[in-house]
Design a protein that fits this description.
Keywords: Membrane, Transmembrane, Transmembrane helix
Helix content: over 70%
Largest sheet: none
Region (Disordered): 65-84
Order of helices and strands: HHH
Structural class: mainly alpha
Strand content: under 5%
Transmembrane segments: 6-24, 36-54
Oligomer: single chain
Radius of gyration: 21 Å
Shape: elongated
Number of domains: 1
Distance between the termini: 48 Å
Number of strands: 0
Length: 84
């Protein structure tokens, strides 16, 4: 499944760049510009989604280290009336 998402990621970003270029090159009032802009936005949205899915998978499997997170356990103690 990961390979399928990786392929989808590449295809989506390729569509984003190709249709984005076509949208920028088309005349403003033409229907081609609207269609190309919609397809470029769709490619960007799918590409971002696929990228985040791949990052999540790589963090879960240990291929990439998990991001640094602050230890916020002391906030609950302070909120409940304790002193720091």
């Amino acid at each position: 499944m990961t390979k399928l998402i990786a392929i989808l990621n590449v295809v989506a970003w390729s569509g984003f760049w190709a249709f984005g270029y076509l949208a920028l090159g088309a005349e403003r009032s033409s229907g081609q510009m609207t269609t190309a802009a919609i397809l470029a936005a769709l490619g960007a949205a799918i590409g971002i989604w696929a990228y985040f899915q791949l990052v999540r998978h790589s963090e879960r499997t240990g291929y990439a280290k998990k991001p640094n997170r602050a230890d916020r356990s002391h906030l609950e103690h302070e909120f409940n009336g304790g002193s720091a």
